[in-house]
Amino acid sequence: MSITTTQTTLDPGLFEAMKYLNMPHARRQAAELLETARVQRWGPHETLAAVLEIEVTGRQAVSLQRRLRALGVPESKTLDTFTPELSTVPDQTLNYLTELDWITRQENLVIAGPAGTGKTHLCQALAHKVVKTGGKAQWITLAQLEELVAAYRVDNRVEKKIHTLTNCDLIVIDLCRGGDYVDKSADGWL
To answer: Mean pLDDT for the chain?
Structure first.
């Protein structure tokens, strides 16, 4: 089996080696890349660098998509779709938050305010930005966190989730989703 472009054929052994090495991004573009290298008279160093760049870029894109899916926040909730006019957060504070320096300094953030002012959207957008800049973020409602803590107290089988939560740059705990925290606060959790 050979993969052919207009002038360059990818050697089946090279194709299989890239498959064995799990290089799907470079494998898909290898024939085209080799043709470009031939036409532009690239040396081995330039060609190898281009192959590796394609693979690394492809893996980074897949990793980002995987981490964004794992975050569990709607893709539409970004800083681009956040409407500052609906929020009571001052522009200076909003700029400070979106720079994410407070995360590097490990500062805590509590956002409170009336319903419909974009608190949840802002937190989701900040979580998106943390992930897109290479950080780790987790989104969890207070009800989910309470269930996790209760399960931990009973059977100690949730160490992995606790570790995941505590190993993040940003943990967003959505307190007011549907008011589900009110009924359980009498149990001493709040």
So the answer is: 83
Per-domain residue ranges for the chain?
Answer: 3-71, 84-187
Rounded mean pLDDT, 3-23: 77
Query: Above 50 in pLDDT, residue 164?
Result: yes
CA distance 71 to 36: 39
Residue 146 backbone phi and psi in degrees, to 5: -65, -45
Measured CA to CA, the distance from residue 101 to residue 103 in angstroms comes to: 5
Class of domain 84-187: alpha beta
| pLDDT tens digits along 82-115 | 988 878 888 899 999 999 999 999 888 888 777 7
Structure tokens at 69: 């899916």
- For the record, the structure tokens of 8 come out as 């360059």
